[in-house]
């Protein structure tokens, strides 16, 4: 299992991007959460198998039709909490 922090920039707020992330994470059985950041980006904490996370990141690059993805930054992190599912945080 791998823990990633993914930060997505571009037109990703107000275009149902977080809902898109939630659905894709649930399809792939990824745990964690997504939330809007104050700087206009979207943050994703994703926990899953390495090969599944690679598929997930490729999905995030597509996004919903109204989104425009400019950049995705990923970093492996240590998580001090456990997640039983994937959620949207507000």
What does this protein structure show overall?
With 90 residues, the protein is α+β, with helices and mostly antiparallel strands. The chain has a single domain (12-80), classed as Alpha-Beta Plaits (2-Layer Sandwich), CATH 3.30.70.100. It is 28% helix and 40% strand. The chain contains two helices and five strands. It has helices at residues 17-28, 50-62, and strands spanning 2-11, 31-36, 42-48, 68-76, 86-89. It has a five-stranded mixed beta sheet, with helices on one face. A hairpin with a 5-residue loop joins strand 2 (31-36) and strand 3. Helix 1 runs antiparallel to helix 2 (50-62). It is globular and about 30 Å long.
Which secondary structure elements does this structure contain, and how are they paired or packed?
Elements: E1 2-11, H1 17-28, E2 31-36, E3 42-48, H2 50-62, E4 68-76, E5 86-89
Parallel strand pairs: 2-5
Antiparallel strand pairs: 1-3, 1-4, 2-3
